[in-house]
Amino acid sequence: MLTRETLVALQQSLEGRHVLSVYIDGRASDPAARRGWRAALTKSMTALRQTLADRNSAELAEFDQCETRLLALVDPIEGALRADGWVAFVTKDGVALEEDLPVAMPNVARWTVGPWVSPYMRAQKELRPVILAVVDVRSARVFRYAEGVLTSLNRMHAHARIDEPSHMGAAPRLSFHGGTRGATASSAVERSRHEATHHMLRDLVDQLVQLASNEGWILIGGMSNTVELAMAMIPQHVQARAGRVERLNQRTSPAELRRVASAGARQLRRTLDERIVDAVIGQAAGHGRGAIGESATRLALSSDAVSMLLVSTRFLAEHPDVAEETTRRALASGALVEIVSGDAGDRLDAIGGIGGALRFHATAQPSAGTSFPSSDHAPLS
Q1: Three-class secondary structure of residue 347 per DSSP
Q2: Strand ranges (E), the chain
Q3: What is the pLDDT along the chain (381 residues), one digit of tens a residue?
Q4: CB contact at 8 A, 348 and 312
Q5: Alpha-carbon span 207 to 374, nearest angstrom
């Protein structure tokens, strides 16, 4: 999958050029419908061609070239697609992008100037890695989960320094107890082990933060008390992307680790989306650094004030042209784009389905000539 930076670079490289953008839902719950996507694609391309009937012959010829390249991509595929989603950006000069996606996509084909990128933003959430640690008092295992693949990265151990207790210069007698100057040998051993566990966890948390970088999720599971110690060491700036998971131990199977990593990241993502949406709504209500609704959001985008654009999945489906236009503007200005669903999406829909966190309070008026991207589209039905 493309990172945000590579997607922006691809979009910029295709500016001013006609692009055939196709997204396909690769799920097939019914085995009999494994090839259903192919019939939908054929119908969509026929409908899209009809919208171009009145265009000049040069553009229609360009579309024909793109359609031929698209069909060359999908003709070798037998049966169902290999993933939940699929995307292709095709120009007359070649295939700019063709890849499987880890999430279901809307069935749609677009003929636009520049690639149609807004649906792709949903898939980019799945690109963020999950760094998973399984801990107990003696060891910690570190895994990376991304795009359905679990990779074991490291194993750490707590090394306690346990010295032989002193018995006034001689070996301990059978009846000699361990206490000398108010401390027992057993308490010294326990203290050493406790310090070793703390040292291991500090090193572990440092590694987790580094591996997660600026966007990854951190999940910690294992022995309850040890998990609590590790969670308490997570730096404040990362806490919103970190959480604990239950019922893990050093013998948990890779399949279960994958399931836990996926479910845990999904829950963290939903919780963080809710916090972000609530913060934007609160800022907008207080005339601060928040914009809600299409008008206010487009005003903020026109002055490059948006640091993060929020679009609900419902708004994306019901207002695709607006969603695409605002997404392109946000990416061009260096803003993040978040497609939100679930409770966060419902909250956003209640105030217009679109909004943004702002770098500064936007007061400028939208520039003259603001328009939607040139678009012809046909949903795959």
Answers
A1: helix
A2: 18-25, 85-91, 94-101, 108-113, 130-135, 139-146, 149-157, 217-222, 242-245, 290-292, 306-312, 336-340, 354-358, 375-379
A3: 888 889 999 999 999 999 999 998 888 655 555 677 888 888 888 888 888 888 888 899 999 999 999 999 998 888 778 888 899 999 999 999 999 988 888 888 999 999 999 999 988 877 789 999 999 999 999 999 987 899 999 999 987 665 555 554 555 555 445 555 545 667 877 788 889 999 999 999 999 999 999 889 999 999 999 999 999 999 999 999 999 999 999 999 999 999 999 999 999 999 999 999 999 999 998 888 999 999 999 999 999 999 999 999 999 999 999 999 999 999 999 999 999 999 999 999 999 999 999 998 766 444 433 444 445 655 543
A4: yes
A5: 47
Structure tokens at 243: 């959480």
Which two three-digit tokens encode residue 157?
A: 């151990």
Q: Which of 332, 282, 287 is nearest to 309 (CA)?
A: 332
Residue type, 227: V
